[in-house]
Design goal:
Layout (H helix, E strand, L loop, with lengths): L2 H23 L1 E4 L2 E3 L4 H13 L2 E9 L7 E11 L5 E13 L3 H7 L2 E7 L6 E4 L1
Antiparallel strand pairs: 1-2, 3-4, 3-6, 4-5, 6-7
Amino acid sequence: MTNELRSATTAAFGAAKESKERRAEGIELRRGVTLAAEARDKVLRYFRACVEKPAVSIVVGRLYHEWDRPGYGERLLLPLLDDNGLPQGLVGIPICKQTFPNRPVAELRAKRITSILPLGGAPATEEPG
């Protein structure tokens, strides 16, 4: 093994270990972007509702596409159902219009409302925050 290959392999294993440690604290949304642990329960609740109920979830206001720099806009989550109406996954569509300089500014200036609309006819739920 050459020194370059050895260095690349070591770097890759180090990055994988670091990624695994980040996932233990939060959720890795995409390569290099991890949802903070303090947002995990709230986010999982409306993502899982899409698949488990199934339901449509809508978030309006602050969007945490990056925990430290929230955006402002809407996120629509739609369940993917098979021919029998059984949930197979979900599709998420965020539209961010503005990014705040940091989380405290975003929380001061922008409200957030999450609505979950079950497809089975149960009443919708709505919560601020």
